[in-house]
Design a protein that fits this description.
The protein is an alpha+beta fold. Helix content is 25%, strand content 25%. A seven-stranded antiparallel β-sheet has the order 2-11-10-5-4-3-6.
Length: 404
């Protein structure tokens, strides 16, 4: 993030903190239909259109140490394989042999010189070409060149590896837009994965994702944790193209002082500026990637639907190279963050039950919750509004508030 943007955000924080009434010109947001979180029909539309047409975080560059290193990715539904080729390039394919559909790798990750089907030993090279067919004589008119593994779009950004099943999708960096610009100074490719946590929660994935797009709840849900650090009334939201967002929430001065940023034992993320020190700068990358930045390192939180009412939430911590989960600083930091996550999880299952009952038919959102509304607008755009039943659509209201 450049200095001019950081200064503009500081001025917005002061304005938000001082205002005493609604924001002039901002529309009243139409309530979100509750059935978007419970409808099997809407969930099927998401499966077909949203998850197969979006750039999804699948791995990190560091997961692929050399040629033949591979990682399986199946969180979005389709069986996908990402592998580093002999030319060092990362490629993705459907993990599906072009003979009878068996997988060509079974382990979650590993290293292979060749990708060999586990059923009849059809064999592919690291670029996905079919290079071996047992009993080739028995296949009349087999065109090996047309039977390579089916490719999937795969691109990297700052060490994060994304896949997209849509061959017509825009390039990853172009799709990220202002997000990539803001992150440039952080050099996230130099960070390393420190720790991973997962939690399976009985709620729709959007119930979970919505909870991380606003700070209106912190005094109620986090009275002895986050609310002691963040002043939610000064929160500044930015809505970006393609459903992406940024939320900057100021820290109380005493919280900044308590961290002791001048301590020599604290890890340091290269390029983390004073705004990241003095506030909580959180980004949302559509559809399911949330990251609250910090000067010492930060988590990436992702939300993966298992079914219409079950979500697996993953949070992966990234820190400067050489840091270890067992280090004294992280031994204190990580359990504290896990406790905050548990506080957030507390309401998710009961909320899902309410949405499935006659108790809540629609959700009225405030100005502070506009990231959620922007997120739902983008879901409809990606699916195609014409494909969505009228009673499940979200009215498009925020286009003129989107920053480029």
């Amino acid at each position: 993030m450049d200095a001019a943007t950081a200064e503009r955000i500081r001025k917005q924080i002061a304005w938000e903190s001082a205002r005493e009434g609604p924001v002039p010109g901002f529309p009243a947001l139409t309530p979100i239909p509750g059935a978007r979180y419970t409808s099997a029909e809407f969930f099927a539309l998401e499966r077909e259109h949203l998850w197969r047409k979006s750039w999804l975080l699948a791995a990190r560059e560091e997961d692929f140490a050399g040629p033949g290193a591979y990682v399986r990715f199946e969180r979005a539904g389709a069986p996908i394989l990402i592998v580093r080729g002999e030319d060092s390039r990362l490629r993705a394919f459907y993990n599906t042999c072009q003979h009878r559909g068996a997988p060509v790798v079974r382990d979650a990750c590993g290293v292979a010189k060749r990708l060999r089907c586990q059923y009849h030993s059809w064999t592919y090279d690291l670029e996905g070409r079919l290079v071996g067919v047992p009993d080739r004589r028995d296949f009349a008119n087999l065109d090996e060149s047309a039977r390579g593994l089916r490719p999937v779009r795969c691109e990297s950004w700052d060490g994060f590896v994304f896949v997209n099943e849509d061959p017509q999708a825009p390039p990853l960096r172009a799709w990220l837009g202002p997000i990539a610009r803001d992150f440039a100074a952080l050099e996230c490719g130099q960070l390393r994965k420190l720790a991973v946590r997962t939690k399976r929660v009985p709620c729709n994935w959007k119930v979970a994702a919505d909870a991380f797009m606003e700070v209106y709840h912190i005094n109620t849900i986090h009275p002895r944790s986050v609310s002691q650090t963040l002043d939610y009334r000064g929160g500044v939201m930015a809505l970006f193209p393609n459903g992406h967002t940024r939320m900057v929430t100021p820290k109380f001065p005493q919280a900044i002082a308590a961290r002791g940023e001048t301590r020599s034992d604290l890890p340091r993320v290269l390029g983390a500026n004073d705004l990241i020190r003095d506030t909580n700068v959180a980004y949302g990358i559509f559809p399911n990637f949330i990251t609250p930045l910090d000067t010492v390192g930060f988590p990436v939180i992702t939300f993966w639907p298992e079914d219409v009412r079950t979500t697996e939430i993953v949070w992966e911590w990234f820190a400067p190279e050489g840091q270890r989960e067992s280090d004294p600083f992280w031994s204190a930091m990580l359990p504290g963050f896990d406790s905050v996550m548990d506080e957030d999880f507390m309401n998710l299952a009961p909320m899902q039950k309410s949405l499935e009952s006659p108790g809540l038919r629609s959700i009225p959102l405030s100005y502070q919750e506009r990231r959620i509304y922007h997120f739902h607008e983008e879901i409809d755009r990606v699916i195609g509004r014409e494909k969505i039943p009228a009673e499940l659509r979200v009215e498009a209201l925020l286009e003129k508030f989107v920053e480029s």
